[in-house]
Specification:
Length: 317
């Protein structure tokens, strides 16, 4: 029987349809791509997909439960819906340290406003924040951003305490982290597909959104390129994501991982450009077809639990 690869996606248009065509082109009649079709979910439901690529469940909780159920029924799901439900950007820094990747100094902060259904007595264990110690540890400027989030939403750059507290006051009940700003000389956004295939893109996060992917970029120093590829691969292998982007800011020749838990990264033709689009479509199709034909044993996460056991910081206590 022909194996079906289903794509679960939302508003994006260019990537899903191009990927379906690429899957069909290389599937050789053994593998066929199509949009996922789902209505309600039945507890004894069977699934006729060999694999599902998830592009939208982070925004639609119903889809996340659908995918976890499909995985429990033996469907290969990219990316892992169980680990994706559990990870966050602060814990990602702990994972990065365990595989030898540099990250900016970071502090996780209590909620500015109480989360729903909590009272003052819900926080009996919480003590006041020593802001002088936080600012001394991080130094200014500081980026304030959600530990759970993406798309540059609720992200603030703060140059002094007044700006910091003004931004923190706007954070509602989000879990925020404060992070040292890396004054970088070069910045890269890197696709990692199947945890092995790495594609480097020069990127300018300070530019307007449609100009951030640098066209006709200069060559990368070979030593730096090797380090970028190594770090991007190590992060995606540790996290267990088969589709991911890793953002690395280079300061004094050292890459720092800024944002690297992006299991549904931007893949729009008009955003990333023709060359990058061709790479992501072709490589994603090859990885998905191979995964559909050669299923991988179920796993709850990537390799990070083994890495933490070797992390000197974890063993210090």
């Amino acid at each position: 029987m022909t194996k079906r690869i289903g794509l679960l996606f939302g508003m994006e248009d260019t990537f899903p349809w191009a990927l379906i065509r690429a899957i069909d082109a290389i599937g050789g009649g053994e593998v066929h791509g199509a949009p996922v079709e789902v209505s309600y979910l039945q507890d004894r439901q069977a699934f006729d997909y060999a694999l599902i690529l998830d592009r939208i469940s982070h925004e639609v909780p119903f889809y996340r439960t659908f995918l976890k159920t499909a995985a429990a029924r033996g469907v290969q799901v990219v990316n892992n819906p169980f680990w994706w439900s559990a990870d966050d950007k602060y814990f990602g820094n702990i994972v990065a340290a365990s595989v030898g990747v540099e990250t900016p100094r970071t502090v996780l902060l209590p909620h500015k406003h109480r989360p729903p259904n909590t009272e003052a007595t819900s926080f009996r264990n919480l003590r006041l924040v020593d802001w002088e110690a936080v600012f001394s540890y991080l130094g200014f400027p500081i980026f304030l951003k959600p530990a759970y989030g993406g798309g540059w939403q609720d992200v603030y750059k703060c140059d002094d305490p007044a700006e910091f507290f003004a931004a923190y006051d706007q954070s509602r009940d989000l879990t925020m982290m404060a992070q040292e700003a890396i004054e970088f000389s070069e910045y890269f956004r890197i696709y990692v597909i199947g945890r092995e295939r790495v594609h480097l893109m020069r990127y300018d996060p300070r530019a307007p959104h449609h100009e951030r992917y640098v066209r006709n970029s200069p060559p990368i120093d070979p030593g730096l390129e090797a380090r970028l590829r190594r770090d991007a691969h190590a992060l995606s292998e540790a996290l267990g994501y088969d589709m991911n982007t890793v953002e690395l800011a280079v300061r004094e020749g050292i890459p720092y991982a800024i944002d690297f838990t992006n299991p549904a990264p931007d893949a729009d033709l008009h955003s990333i450009g023709d060359e990058n689009f061709a790479w992501i479509v072709g490589n994603m199709a090859e990885v998905l077809v191979d995964r559909a034909l050669h299923p991988r044993p179920f796993e709850l996460s990537g390799s990070w639990p083994r890495g933490l056991a070797r992390d000197p910081a974890a063993q210090a206590h």
